[in-house]
Write a sequence for this structure.
């Protein structure tokens, strides 16, 4: 207490000196006039971010919860809006950034011509490519797709089965340009790739039967036309009948019967999305049109693998091997 009083008295005596007082006021004025506005400008609290979604499931709701928490922790204002008809476009025009959750939410916003910076999450790359072709101006739009880098899938197959494996792939005719990229990634992983094209779901069972005679494993991609709620049961039953293990693209697909999948958890997606948001507000633009997931997890179905006489390594060992492969030039 005595020490505190002594410091106060000393400070008052210092200010009583004319020269010292003038210097003190000059520094204080400089801070108020020049430094304080710069600091206030640097604060992100005036940035308005909206999470737009149409419908939610357990996964997307978890992602929304993580996004709100992570965005708030970084000092930004965030709200969520469920898209309804008619669309309140004026509300979105007031935002500095829109986060579109899912394919349909993205489609609605792009078709509404809301030319505000938009970052899409939980959207397949093929679907986003098709949207971009149909929209005249997408310079304001970027997306963090759910597809993982192509080579990561083959690194997963190598981590489970080893090299020199034959992988099968189901594609639709319009996705044919992707085949070359997959073949290159397979070759780099010392695997071979056999592609089967289908344009209607009735061809799925015959395609899986044919592939089972030529390949060792089927790589499933997040194509909503081939792999959806209506087809998943038939695909998995056919693969089980013909002893063709499936590498899926989500934890749910593994739970349903695929033997393994690479996927990103809601918290992993949220963390990467917030990093993209911070970079956007810092530079006022997106670095990329398409971002791929950087962090990932591995899900395994030991029961289905065992029924196919496949011995799976531990997920931690698989994850470590994949990350090691990605670090190797």
């Amino acid at each position: 207490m005595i020490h505190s009083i002594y410091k106060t008295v000393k400070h008052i005596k210092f200010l009583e000196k004319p020269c010292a007082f003038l210097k003190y006021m000059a520094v204080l004025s400089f801070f108020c006039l020049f430094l304080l506005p710069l600091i206030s400008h640097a604060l992100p609290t005036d940035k308005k971010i909206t999470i737009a979604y149409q419908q939610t499931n357990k996964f997307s709701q978890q992602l929304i919860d993580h996004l709100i928490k992570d965005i708030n922790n970084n000092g930004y204002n965030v709200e969520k809006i469920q898209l309804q008809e008619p669309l309140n476009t004026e509300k979105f025009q007031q935002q500095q950034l829109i986060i579109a959750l899912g394919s349909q939410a993205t489609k609605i916003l792009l078709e509404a011509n809301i030319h505000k910076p938009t970052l899409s999450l939980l959207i397949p790359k093929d679907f986003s490519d098709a949207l971009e072709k149909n929209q005249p101006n997408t310079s304001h739009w970027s997306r963090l797709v759910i597809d993982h880098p192509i080579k990561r899938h083959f690194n997963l197959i190598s981590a489970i089965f080893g090299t020199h494996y034959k992988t099968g792939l189901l594609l639709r005719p319009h996705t044919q340009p992707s085949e070359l990229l997959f073949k290159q990634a397979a070759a780099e992983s010392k695997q071979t790739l056999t592609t089967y094209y289908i344009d209607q779901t009735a061809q799925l069972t015959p395609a899986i039967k044919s592939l089972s005679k030529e390949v060792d494993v089927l790589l499933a991609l997040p194509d909503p036309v081939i792999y959806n709620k209506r087809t998943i049961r038939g695909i998995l039953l056919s693969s089980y009948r013909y002893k063709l293990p499936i590498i899926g693209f989500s934890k749910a697909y593994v739970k349903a019967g695929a033997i393994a999948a690479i996927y990103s958890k809601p918290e992993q997606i949220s963390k990467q999305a917030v990093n993209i948001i911070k970079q956007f507000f810092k530079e006022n633009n997106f670095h990329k049109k398409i971002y791929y997931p950087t962090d990932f997890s591995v899900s395994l179905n030991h029961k289905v693998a065992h029924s196919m006489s496949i011995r799976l390594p531990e997920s931690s060992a698989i994850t470590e091997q994949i990350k090691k492969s990605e670090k190797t030039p």
The mean pLDDT is 87. The longest helix spans residues 18-42. The longest strand covers residues 48-53. Residues 143 and 290 are 5 Å apart (CA to CA).
